[in-house]
Amino acid sequence: MNDQRLRLDLSELAEEVTVVDLRDRTLRTSRRLGIQRAVATSAAALVLIAAATGTAFAIRPDQSPNPQPADTPSVTATPSPTQPPSPPASTSAGDPPGTSPGSGSSTNTSAVKFGKLVYGPAELTGAEAANLRSWRPGDNPVRLLALPELALKGNVSVSPDGRRVAWVDSDGNSNNLFVANVDGSDRQKVRSDVDPYCVTAVWSPDGRQLLFRETKANDAGGPGRYGVLDVRSTAKTVRWWATEPAACHALWSADGRTIAMNTDLGVTLYATDGTTRRVVPGFSRDGWRSNDVASLSPDGSRVALLREKPGGDDGDVARDLRVNVVLDTRTGKSVALPLGGRELWQLHFQTDGSMVVRVRAGNGYAVLLVDEDGRKISETAELAAFRDMQILAVVA
Description:
CATH class: Mainly Beta
Helix content: 10-25%
Mean pLDDT: 78
Number of helices: 3
Strand order of the largest sheet: 5-4-3-25
Distance between the termini: 48 Å
Order of helices and strands: HHEEEEEHEEEEEEEEEEEEEEEEEEEE
Strand content: 25-35%
CATH superfamily: TolB, C-terminal domain
Largest sheet: 4 strands, antiparallel
């Protein structure tokens, strides 16, 4: 306890986060999610909460059912986004106008296309499992593998090529890292004792490696270590980081050079060996802060995140893919987006630098395709079937 107090005091003097504070808050969130699931599933699930050790166990359901055939869009699309928006909102939450979205040569707009959007539940509903779904505007949605709902909401990761899925689930003794094809085939357990709440496993751009954090199931908030796992190697070799950053929710840039993570106050960029590159400016204890990063541009120059003022639910650091601003990671300034006065809801960068932008449109959502210079290429009303879901990834 004395050591923890000393670390907190030193942290305040240096205006930096501590491992204990960030991860303790993460565990409080994991307990909350575990309690929700226990109440919803009653006899079907057992949640053990140990206050002394800060541990939350989730009961894994039976093996995922076989994938089902493609859905048909039996529901009507949401109202046309050209109708009067409701409600109007700014991307910068009252900030002065943001930086110019373009700074280089013009984009070949004819080559900018929608990737495939992968959806999962936005909220816990009490179901023991739920399906991922994929959709490309103009095509029919497709039902993918079923996963435990806590994994879908908290730690599932889809490979950049859209072929593989990684997630962490508990067997009561260990939190295990699994990978499988998106149709549920070739399911493998590749690692035990993996952090399921704070540093969720994230794919490298080539889909070969997973960044994860190792920690014991009964000490999820205690010391651990970061590793990069080669999932294609026979021995599942791991390259361990020499440092353990006090951070959560990793994002890997498409150029393979940068990893962004939340600290207690904001966002820090790391090299792929764990060394610190730079801190994104504009965050402070009494000003803007963020517990949730959602997407990183291919070169690490921009990050999409949920930015808030202190207060409210800022102690909750469970992964949230909501977005209300895009920031320049060098200046901390907000980037202007062509939203037409509508509320920004989610944003995912594609590998060519373009963005898939989800906005509130009437009673539903619309998805915009925006090039890297900030010009809107196209807009599509999202299917009503996705109204209660969130976009987990945009893949090739």
